[in-house]
Amino acid sequence: MTKSVTVKDLKERLNLELICSETGLERPILTSDLSRPGLELTGFFSYYPEDRVQLFGMTEISFSEGMEPEERLKRYKQMCTKRTPAFVISRNLEVPKELVAAAKEADIPVLRSRLKTTRLSVYITNYLESRLAPVISMHGVLVDIYGLGVLITGSSGVGKSETALELVKRGHRLVADDNVEIRQEDEMTLIGSSPAIIEHLLEIRGLGIINVMTLFGAGAVRSSKKITIVVHLENWDPDKHYDRVGLDQEMTKIFDMDIPKITVPVRPGRNLSVIIEVAAMNFRLKNMGYNAAEQFTQDLNNLIGHNSSMND
After folding, report:
1. Distances (CA, A) of 311 to 304, 305, 308
2. The pTM is what?
3. In whole angstroms, what is the distance from residue 226 CA to residue 201 CA?
4. Is 232 considered catalytic here?
5. Is 114 an annotated catalytic residue?
6. Can 178 be counted among the known catalytic residues?
7. Is residue 282 located within the same domain as residue 163?
8. Residues 52-81: what's their mean pLDDT?
9. Where does ATP bind (predicted)?
10. Which of 25, 91, 113, 208 registers the highest number of CB atoms within 10 A of its CB?
């Protein structure tokens, strides 16, 4: 699923000034990529990214000012296609009247910002990438634990929500319960959030639905979080081998990204919230360069080697 965004959304989000063509504000924006149409002003249209927002800075405006008015109007008309969403002018620069004329004829909005071109480009790209990122829904609970986005998965009734409640009581923050909307903002980033209708809510069997923000305060929730690790809860299987040292790193795929995964068996007497909390801390420690399992294995091998040499 991909969310849609219009030129009107972009205008309102960045507080852009509308120069002309208000009726064209409903034009869709289909890509987060921007175009700086410098080559097009010289007449090169062999490749013209017409479906992108066309961003004009000082360079493009200054170059166009050196052109004859007839040629300038011709170039702007060539840029106005059915797929062109909008023209955006930075730095509060004066908009060429030929651009306004061509945009009005094609009903393409011309917008202007006081921001410098580079900064405006970053803001537009970040906003569009966030809005246009592909989105999937996953059954699970997302909690912010020590700054890490921990996605807790498992079959229905295994104890995900109850574990999340205990984690919130221990000072961590709930992002989403039951249904986690995950969007891929780029090749390295997955952002999880909650559907608006169930935001801040937890469903506890036997207790019902509770509002975490009302009970524990605004500091107990957050609206979104980057997913760093997946903790999968499953009922204890006595015939299954579970990793007891921690050398094996299991991975799970979300979209086309591999995310580290830890499988935690569930049975009476195990404090899942503490286990998940420690798993998050241990993951952070590994990222800082210390791996307790590898250190233990190395020390054990050194001890075995030392005893062997002594026996020899």
Report:
1. 11, 10, 5
2. 0.71
3. 19
4. no
5. no
6. yes
7. yes
8. 94
9. 154-161
10. 113
